[in-house]
Amino acid sequence: MEPGKYLQVAVVGVGGVGTQVVEQLIANPIYGFQLVALTSSKRMLQPTKDLCINPIAWKDALNASETPVDLSAVTSTLQELVKQGKKAVFIDNTSSQDVAEMYPALLSAGINVITPNKKAFSGEAGLYQAIVQASRSGRYLHESTVGAGLPIISTLRDLVETGDKVVKIEGVFSGTMSYIFNNFSAVEGSDESFSSIVKGARAQGYTEPNPADDLNGADVARKLTILARIIPELKDEQGNFPLLHGYQSVETTSLIQDAPASAVSNGDEFMKWLPEQDAHFSQMREQAAKEGSVLRYVGVVDVKNKVVKAELAKYPKTHPFATSLGGSDNIIMFHTERYGKRPLIVQGAGAGNDVTAMGVVSDILKLIRP
Amino acid sequence: MEPGKYLQVAVVGVGGVGTQVVEQLIANPIYGFQLVALTSSKRMLQPTKDLCINPIAWKDALNASETPVDLSAVTSTLQELVKQGKKAVFIDNTSSQDVAEMYPALLSAGINVITPNKKAFSGEAGLYQAIVQASRSGRYLHESTVGAGLPIISTLRDLVETGDKVVKIEGVFSGTMSYIFNNFSAVEGSDESFSSIVKGARAQGYTEPNPADDLNGADVARKLTILARIIPELKDEQGNFPLLHGYQSVETTSLIQDAPASAVSNGDEFMKWLPEQDAHFSQMREQAAKEGSVLRYVGVVDVKNKVVKAELAKYPKTHPFATSLGGSDNIIMFHTERYGKRPLIVQGAGAGNDVTAMGVVSDILKLIRP
Lengths: 370, 370
Prior knowledge:
Helices cover 39% and strands 18% of the residues of chain A. The first copy, chain A, is an alpha/beta fold.
């Protein structure tokens, strides 16, 4: 490819995922990319007319930069490149609502947007609809918002756009919830307490700093909203989605609804409070075991009955959610008209910087493959 | 989209899969397509300058056509459209070696090629290398050559092109073999004879007209060749693939190696001969059961040890190949550096006209999404 035809890439956010995105782009054996902007939360690097960002020493250069972050300057740079007939993409590796709100303007200017940031696709309907509208000019891709690098959104879009009808999507969408219940309610039995397993998960870095942010089910509700909005049968007659208020419209079972405010706002306080819930969870585990079942925190998009819910449910010990799952796997089952008797299943690690970055970079490859 | 910008589509072969491809294209709610050629094995339909192929009555029109098939005329039509700056694709829904040998010339002329036909990608190296060479001008996509509509090839390409290292791919790649062994060697036990299960599968249309063509393992060997050729670590120092002679280089266990020539060439003769093998298969099933295992016909691409093999193997009753599989499911596990402890798994129906056509049409969507 001629250097002038390289995809022009602005990377916003170089934390765990963002750093991996840059490394995977640089290491790509096939395609050429031109990095035109890099921003951390504090600093920014933009090339002058004569200077490209050094693909080897980019992080040192960024850390040494004295330019404060200016996302409107990044936008202008990309806009200029689009005007020159080049293909440009804005990669949002943050989890910021403010950055998410930039997407409609970026897309309208013909700039493509790729992101693992769930905010725009799971939040209020206005922003989401503005993005869909603006996508006539630029393209938005967000594979890693659900299942990280697993092919979930691309598979759902392929099913829908080739004319299949989704009947139900059912899965374990949170790596943290997966880990906790795979261990707490194992097929072969377990007697460790709930709080002890959460403590272990937190110590290994499998949870948010405050596990309350996993156990409230909001992350699962956000992912369900993202998927539900791709399914045409869930639109109402006005073309709006019933999930008008985003993930807050999802029927969500919080596992910590009785937690005091002090525990919800502070991880250490939360861990002190959690053992109070152990008897309650143990009782649910025993009840499930009596029925030959295990507990799994699942998400369901039931198209037929127009129900979208995140809940703690019982599954027989012979069900794939019991037999196949391990570690912090995600598993997603697509029940459709074509995949009728037997669902299409995708399974694997659904969190981690490297696999999340893989989802981002595979979206970038969709823009650049000849 | 302006009508002039529609993707120009020539569909070659309108059997079970081809018919579904046309129907899915016509029904697509989002994108526009222009059908510029349709061919059956005997007849052909090409529009004159003023006449488009009728998307409703296309099959009647094709059956009524008096134009004999002329694939060089189809090529010329597409070539002309490419010269006019239009995007064109040649869809090969046949399983013909002759049609496969057209790909390099089509690609060189800037015509994209999409196909579920395994011949070109699993056959001798010369044709495959010519295709890869010619793909600088046109793009070739063949998702449905492995796992039908399941995202197998796209997932493998995403893993490889984002810099992951494949350690091993292991799976049940044949829907027919899956059905036969899921029933013959079920987790809960089974005492039905091998020939009786094959007879039932044949009666339900789950096998080739002669089941010998499934049981010889060649179909699995072809799929393994297709996957192995996507993995850079399996190239030798000259950039050639060790699978130089295509699928015939794969270590393949035929389940019917003792069959007489008359049975290999005639399905009814084959079914008469097969019961002679029942004692042999029953003995293997018993041996596996004694070890707490089931029999599965699997394919393995072991990158680390550079072994590619199709074989009948024993798996513990707790393994996903035993617990998760049912019907005529395919299941494919990608063990990679990133998906290290726990593999990325894709599972679901791996055969059928509708899901195979879905794989073809999802490849077409990759060309046309804005």
